């Protein structure tokens, strides 16, 4: 998103965001509020030998006379049914909450929970897979709310300094809560910590077989957007496995616009042989 120098974009690459099995890119801008906001996104099929399982949202909408920027990355695993469901339903569920305009955090948390419950109840149709999610809602170009479940990440830059606004939900750091739920964390098979030896994230939508040991509660943060805000990067673990927050911000700040930045981040992630473990 962007006013003067403020940019927000979805960077998609490898196991990141996509629409069906397609790749591509796009851009857009807002039309309301004191801050001019532009965004760009890049979708690239990675080196995995299965179809693209990841979906995104990037758009501005008018709701009750207010302009909302809606941005998300849904990083699927074991199929694309759950991320496709999230793309279609998660934001609409958030905006249906009566408290959204007064308490966005409560509404986001509740909608994450009800959406996950709906996914589990439809699991025969949606399959056995799941998805991580990072969502960003920009209200009138001034208030930014970010939530995440899993290991995708949102990073904000002000004055060139990277600020991570999300928490990486990994089995190694949430071992206690997993064990309290009756599950376990194992590095077998392979050398990546996994919930019950299966999933390399400790929070996700779906995954019915693991749900009793797996949380879908989001971490939520917010920020005021002003002329000091430069950019926001939303990306899945494919970027963050090969690039730290500040490095990504530094690369993006050099780009001429959000679309160019997104393309450069995806290209660099692929150049560094990024991989995803979920």
Task: Give a written overview of the molecule.
With 278 residues, the chain is of the alpha+beta class. 26% of the residues lie in helices and 31% in strands. It has helices at 81-96, 104-121, 123-126, 175-180, 237-240, 245-254, 258-271; strands at 7-11, 24-29, 38-43, 54-63, 66-77, 130-139, 143-149, 153-158, 161-164, 185-186, 194-195, 205-206, 219-224, 229-235. A six-stranded mixed sheet has the order 2-3-1-14-8-9. Strands 4, 5, 6, 7, 12 and 13 form a six-stranded antiparallel sheet that branches. The protein has a two-stranded antiparallel ribbon with strand order 10-11. Helix 1 packs across helix 2 (104-121) and helix 6 packs across helix 7 (258-271). It starts with 6 loop residues before the first strand and ends in a 7-residue tail after the last helix. The model is unreliable at 1-22 (pLDDT under 50). It catalyses: O-phospho-L-threonyl-[protein] + H2O = L-threonyl-[protein] + phosphate; O-phospho-L-seryl-[protein] + H2O = L-seryl-[protein] + phosphate. This is protein-serine/threonine phosphatase. Residues 38-278 form the PPM-type phosphatase domain. Residues 157-190 are annotated as: Disordered. Residues 166-178 have a biased composition (Basic and acidic residues).
């Amino acid at each position: 998103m962007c006013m003067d120098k403020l940019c927000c974009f979805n960077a998609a690459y490898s196991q990141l965001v996509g629409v069906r099995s397609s790749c591509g890119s796009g851009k857009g801008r807002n039309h309301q509020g004191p801050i001019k906001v532009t965004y760009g996104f890049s979708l690239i099929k990675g080196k995995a030998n299965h179809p693209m399982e990841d979906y995104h949202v990037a758009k501005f909408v008018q709701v009750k006379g207010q302009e909302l920027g809606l941005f998300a990355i849904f990083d699927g695993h074991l199929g694309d049914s759950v991320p496709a469901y999230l793309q279609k339903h998660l934001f609409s569920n958030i905006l249906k909450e009566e408290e959204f305009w007064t308490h966005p955090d409560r509404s986001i948390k509740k909608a994450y929970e009800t959406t996950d419950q709906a996914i589990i109840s439809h699991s025969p149709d949606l399959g056995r897979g799941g998805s991580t999610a990072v969502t960003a809602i920009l209200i009138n170009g001034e208030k930014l709310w970010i939530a995440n479940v899993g290991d995708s990440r949102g990073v904000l830059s002000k004055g060139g300094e990277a600020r991570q606004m999300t928490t990486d939900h990994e089995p190694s750091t949430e071992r206690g809560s997993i064990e309290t739920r009756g599950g376990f964390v194992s590095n077998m098979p392979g050398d990546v910590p996994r919930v019950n030896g299966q999933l390399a994230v400790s929070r996700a939508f779906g995954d019915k077989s693991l749900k009793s040991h797996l949380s879908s509660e989001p971490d939520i943060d917010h920020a005021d957007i002003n002329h000091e805000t430069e950019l926001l990067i939303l990306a899945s673990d494919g970027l963050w496995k090969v690039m730290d927050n500040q490095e990504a911000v530094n690369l993006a700040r050099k780009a001429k616009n959000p679309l160019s930045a997104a393309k450069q981040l995806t290209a660099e992630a692929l150049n560094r042989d990024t991989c995803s473990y979920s």
